[in-house]
Amino acid sequence: MPPHDRPHLVRPAGRPAQLILPAPRSLQAPLWRSIAAFRIASLAYAAILLGLRRDAYLHWGLAWAVLAAMTVWTVAATFFYAARQRRGWPLLAADLAVTIAALLSTEFVQKPEYIKAGLMPVTATWLAGPALAWSVAAGVRAGAIAAILTGTGVVLLRHLRVSQILPSTDLDGPVILLMAAMLAGYIAKLAASAEQAIQRAAEIEAASRERERIARTIHDSVLQVLAMVQRRGAEIGGQAAEIGRLAGEQEVALRTLITAADEPLPGGELDLSSELSREAGTFISVITPATPVLLNEKTVCETTAAVREAIDNVRRHCGESARAWVLVDDEGAEVSVTIRDDGPGIPAGRLTEAAAEGRLGISHAITGRLRDIGGTADISSTPGAGTEVKLRVPR
Predict the structure, then answer these.
(1) Using an 8 Å Cβ cutoff, are 281 and 340 in contact?
(2) Half-sphere exposure of 263 (CA within 13 A, CB side)
(3) How do 334-341 and 387-394 pair as beta strands?
(4) Dist CA 365 CA 379 (whole Å)
(5) What is the rounded distance in angstroms from the CA atom of residue 137 to the CA atom of residue 133?
(6) Separation CA 342–CA 386 (nearest Å)
(7) DSSP-assigned beta bridge partners for residue 334
(8) Which of 117-121, 144-148, 214-218, 284-288 is predicted most confidently?
(9) Cα Rg, the chain, nearest whole Å
(10) What residues pair up with 377 in beta bridges, in sequence order?
C-alpha cells in the first residue's frame, strides 16, 4: 500500500494531532467503466450492422436517427453514471425507458420479414446496458427485472404467439441477457462487501496505530512513575508501602488496558478473557487462553461479576496481601473459570452458617448468578490450604 493510502497522523501548528484515514476505495468503479466501454463498443457494432444491412430497413435514414439518439444517450448515461450520487432510480428508469423505446423503434424502421426472421434489432447488443447498470446499482433482483423487461421487448418484436415462443430461438438472447445481468449483480455485491471490508481494515489499522502511539506515551511517563512509586514505597515501608502497593496494582491494570486486543467482535458478544484481565493486580494473576473467549454479553457480564465477588471475598477474609489466581479455560461446549487463593481456607460448615445469617455473597452473588445463566458454581476449601471456586458456563 503506498504511503499516502495508509492511515497517518498530521500535527497542525498549535493544534492537537489528527489521525487521517485514506479515502475509501470504490471497487465498483471498474464495473461502471466496463459498462461504459460496453455501451460504446455496442454502439459501434450497431452502426456497423446498420451500414451493412441497408436492404433490411424500410426507413434507413430514420434508423440512423435512432442510432444518433442512442449515441447522445450513451454519452449522457456515461456522464451521469460516473457520479455515485446520481445513480438513483430516476436515472435507472430513464436508461431503461430510452433503451426499450430504441428497441421498439425497430418495428417502424426495419422490414417486417427481417424482423420475423430474427434479424438483430437496430439497437443490436446495446440494449443490454440498462440491465447491467441495474444489476451493479441495485443488485441481482433489479438486474433480473431490467433484463426481463428488455427481453420482453425483444420477444414482442417477433409477433409470436405464446405457443411459438418456447420452441423458437427468440428466447436465447433474453435468457443470456438475464444470466449476464444476474452475474453482474453478484459481482457487484462481492465488490461492495470487499469495499466495506477494506474500509473496516483501514479503520482498525488506524485505531491500532493510535493505540500504539498512546501506549508508548503512557509507557514513557505514567507507567514509569507508578513503577517508581511502588519501588520507593516498598523501600520506605509503613503507609508508603501501602501507597506503593496501590500504585503497583494500577500499573498492572493500566498495562492490561493498553495491551488489550482491539479486534472487532461479533454483535452481541464480548471477550471474557479481556473483561477478566482488567481484574489483574499485584496480588491477582489472571491466566487466559491466547485467543478470545467469546460469549454472549449477558453471560460475560454475569460471570465477570461472580469472579469479582470471589476476589472481594479473598480480600475481605484473607487480607489485602493474599494472592489469588484466576484461570480461564475454553473447553469448547463450555467455559470454566477457576479462582484459587492461598488464604487459610473456609472452616467446615461456615458457608451454611453464612447463608442462615443472611450473608448471601456466595449463595446469591456467585452461585445465583451462574444458575441464572445456566451455569454452575462449585466451591471447595480445605482449612490451611486455601479456597477454590470453579465456575462453569455453557456456550
Answers:
(1) no
(2) 11
(3) antiparallel
(4) 13
(5) 6
(6) 5
(7) 394
(8) 144-148
(9) 36
(10) 391
Residue range 204-261, pLDDT digits in tens: 777 777 777 777 777 667 777 887 887 888 888 877 887 887 787 777 777 766 665 4
Residue type, 155: V
Please give the Cα distance from 96 to 128 (Å, whole number): 10
How many angstroms separate the most distant Cα atoms in the chain?
110
Q: CB-hemisphere CA count at 13 Å for 68?
A: 6
- Indicate if the pLDDT at residue 132 is higher than 80: yes
Ordered structural domains, the chain, with CATH? 1-264 (no CATH), 270-395 (3.30.565.10)
Contact, 233 vs 242, CB < 8 A? yes
Q: What's the pTM? A: 0.54
Other CB atoms within a 10 A radius of the CB of residue 14 amount to: 5
Cα–Cα distance measured from residue 199 to residue 177, given in angstroms and rounded to the nearest whole number: 33
CB 384 within 8 A of CB 345: yes
Rounded alpha-carbon distances, angstroms, from residue 265 to 17, 79, 166, 295: 28, 41, 52, 10
DSSP symbol at 119: P
Residues 244, 32: Cα–Cα separation, whole Å = 65
Strands 324-330 and 284-287: parallel
Indicate the Cα dihedral angle 88, 92, 95, 97, nearest 10°.
-130
In the numeric block, which cell numbers belong to residue 334? 463450555
The secondary structure of the chain in percent helix, strand, coil, rounded to multiples of 5, reads: 65, 10, 25
Do residues 387 and 322 lie in contact, with contact meaning Cβ atoms separated by under 8 Å? no
Burial of 264 (0-12, 13-18, 19+ CB in 10 A): exposed
Number of H helices, E strands in the chain: 15, 9
Q: Nearest CA to 139 among 98, 192, 95?
A: 192
Residue-level length of the chain: 395
Instruction: Give the burial class of 155: count Cβ atoms within 10 A of its Cβ; 0-12 exposed, 13-18 middle, 19 or more buried.
Output: middle
Helix (H) or strand (E) holding 46: helix 29-52
Could you give the residue ranges of the DSSP H alpha helices within 219-319?
224-236, 239-259, 272-277, 297-318
